[in-house]
Design a protein that fits this description.
The protein has helices spanning about 10-30, 40-45, 50-80, 80-100, 105-115, 120-130, 140-165, 170-175, 175-190, 210-225, 230-240, 250-270, 275-295, 300-325, 335-360, 365-380. It has about 400 residues and is mostly helical.
Length: about 400
């Protein structure tokens, strides 16, 4: 008789995941003291236009993609994860100090590179989490990490809303550097990494031999990413729709709160139902966001748009990583996760830049129309992706 018991993550591995979750909370607590006012800082304080905003945001995502690809490759090569994780958090903290000292938007660029280069932590961390999880709680664990990310965002946004009444943007940026430093200390102190007993020489993975389902997932994710422009456009849209500057961070709070509330449930749903189905729901929710901004003409409809945006992020982020990790060869998991993020990021650079050009040239509705079309194509292609069967 075959046992129906499902394998469980060990207590030590749960402790590691919980430490990562706490570090994620602290990092996003600091970063999201900045993000609600970032587009206002760039366009109002530093007097840049929407094309520049789109360029800086898109550049950031491109750097994210490159840093994750390289860190994934070298993490597999040297069989180390921890050093990439704490160094990545440290770079994020340093960048916020640089933002606070930047006199013009051009000076933001090197610190933007440092900031997003801090994402070298992501692929090694995700590979480690995937390895210490089972097929029956991997979605849950990725969902927990994203939930703590968004909970940190909620705390950071609330802090920003309070502090903005008393401090300048630059002073808030300075304070935002410190929570992440605490996360660095936690990881250095409490994560003990064991070297793999394997003595093989890592030669890199031949991506020509990727599973056909993983190739298709890469393709449709790239198509979706080409239309998935930065959240900054949503905030500027709301400002131009009549929301006061002091209320714009509240909309970002709505997004982050619903992303926090939905990340873990969507991760659990992916474990019970299907990774692909939940990912399809995530794409569908972004399509709803686009339609709300295209058709809605009231402040209430825009609030609903940010609510659906939060649900979209809650569904998309943990489940996409889970699906990629399970379709990737076990010996090259960090490399594949890094390559996936590289593709997403390289598409994000033209996505936000093109969205800014379309906004400045033909109006703010056009980027949403293009994104709706690309999202629909990605949803159709996703129907042909086959998941890997769960191991008992």
């Amino acid at each position: 008789m075959v046992s129906s018991a499902r394998p469980k993550t060990s207590s030590e591995n749960k402790r590691i995941i919980n430490i990562f979750a706490l570090a994620s909370f602290l990092n996003d607590f600091g970063s999201d003291m900045i993000y609600p006012v970032w587009p206002l800082f760039v366009t109002v304080v530093l007097r840049a236009n929407m094309s520049v905003l789109g360029f800086t945001d898109g550049l950031g995502e491109a750097i994210v993609s490159l840093s994750q690809a390289l860190s994934g490759y070298f993490s597999d090569r040297i069989q180390r994860r921890k050093i990439f994780i704490w160094v990545g958090y440290l770079l994020g903290s340093i960048s916020r100090l640089g933002y606070a000292l930047s006199p013009t938007w051009k000076h933001l660029i090197p610190f933007r590179i440092i900031d997003r280069g801090g994402k070298i932590r992501s692929a090694p961390r995700d590979a480690l989490v995937a390895d210490i999880s089972t097929d029956y709680d991997r979605g849950r664990n990725f969902g927990l990490l994203r939930a703590m990310d968004h909970l940190g965002a909620v705390a950071g946004i609330i802090t920003c809303i309070i502090l903005i009444q008393f401090l300048t943007y630059r002073q808030i940026f300075l304070l935002a550097a410190f929570p992440t430093l605490i996360g660095v200390i936690l990881i250095i102190t409490f994560i003990k990494e064991k070297r793999s007993p394997s003595t093989r020489v890592y030669k890199g993975y031949d991506f020509r031999h990727l599973d056909i389902n993983l190739r298709l997932l890469f393709l449709l994710s790239a198509i979706f990413a080409l239309g998935s422009f930065s959240y900054s456009f949503l905030l500027i849209f709301a400002k131009e729709a009549g929301f006061r500057l002091t209320l714009v961070p509240v909309l970002y709070l709505v997004f982050s709160a619903f992303a926090f509330l939905s990340s873990l449930p969507f991760g659990l749903l992916a474990d019970r139902l299907s990774r692909k189905k939940v990912l399809w729901i995530g794409y569908g929710l972004w399509l709803v966001v686009c339609l709300v901004f295209i058709l809605g003409n009231t402040k209430i409809s825009l609030v609903l748009g940010f609510l659906f945006y939060g649900l979209h992020r809650g569904a998309l982020e943990p489940v996409s990583k889970t699906l990629v990790a399970e379709l990737a060869p076990s010996s090259f998991k960090a490399s594949i996760l890094g390559a996936y993020q590289m593709i997403i990021g390289f598409c994000a650079l033209p996505a936000s830049f093109i969205a800014g050009l379309l906004w400045d040239t033909w109006g703010k509705m056009v980027p949403f129309i293009l994104s709706s079309l690309l999202t629909f194509i990605a949803m159709i292609l996703l129907l042909w992706v086959k998941e890997k069967p769960k191991e008992l």
